[in-house]
Each structure stands twice: as structure tokens, then as C-alpha cells.
Amino acid sequence: DALPISENNVGEKRYFRNGWNLVQLMYAYVNSEKFVNVDEWTTGFCMHSDWVLGYFANYYNVSRHVEEAYYKDVAHARIEPYKGSELYAHPGKGFCKQDKEKGCRPDSEICHRVSQEWMMNETERWRVKYPTKFRNVTANDSTL
User: Fold this and answer.
1) Distances from the Cα of 144 to the Cαs of 52, 138, 140, in angstroms?
2) Which residues are CB-contacts of 1 (< 8 A; sequence separation ≥ 6)?
3) Residues near 119 by Cβ (< 8 Å), separated by ≥ 6?
4) Using CA atoms, how far apart are residues 97 and 112, in angstroms rounded to an integer?
5) Is the dihedral of CA 53, 55, 56, 61 positive or negative?
6) What sections of 8-135 are H helices per DSSP?
7) pLDDT per residue over 51-107, tens digit each?
8) Nearest to 33 by CA among 23, 24, 25, 43
């Protein structure tokens, strides 16, 4: 069996250094290209943070296979759902029932597929609550 790094599925091989652990590789990979420069990218993928974590955890086999029967034939299924939130095996359970149509509550730990308006409101809510935790930038700031 070849090591996942040799498969280079998402272009991670160019960042790998002998002796590195997986976290070091992940760090180099996600910090290699700034999203604000996406129009200038020549390599790489634009992935949500959960996709990056999922790729490395699942394809680099850093965990046991999940016990959920739904995934018994999916060799790379290695991440258990967060607090029982399962989109495919058990749709509508846990946090997966929260989306932009049904609404995300301010106390939601996780809320997928949120609207831009919800993200702006939620960011402002946290900025007011913890002002020292935010840089003084606006949504139009090119450094974001």
C-alpha cells in the first residue's frame, strides 16, 4: 500500500518534509495560499476547514473506522459525527437540522449552510460581547 502522501490527492506533497507529523503537514498546507489571493492561485484547492480536517483524518488513517453501519463499505470513514449530528446516515439529527432555511440559533454550537446575513449578525454579536478579541476591520477589508 502506498502512503497517502504519494497519492498527492489535494496537492499536499509539495509541502511535506521528512520527519514531519501530520499536524505540521496540515499547517503548511492550509497556510500556503491566502484565500484573498484566490485569483492568483496556480495550485491547490479551496476547501472549508472541515473538509481539510476530514481529508487528512480520513485518508491518512489517523483513527479507527467509524462504527456506523451506514459507512461499512466506505474505507476512509474515520470521523465520528459531532454529538450525534449526522447528515447522511441519520438526516435531521443533532446540529444537522439547523440550516439557513430553518434558522440557526445564537446558542448553536455548529450551524452549517448559514446565510451571509446570519454570519454578519453573529460576528457583530460576538464583537460586541468580546471587543478585544477582534481586529478593527470591516467586511470590505482586503486583509481578511
Assistant:
1) 20, 9, 8
2) none
3) none
4) 9
5) positive
6) 22-30, 49-59, 116-129
7) 888 888 888 888 888 888 988 998 888 888 888 777 778 777 777 665 555 666 667
8) 43
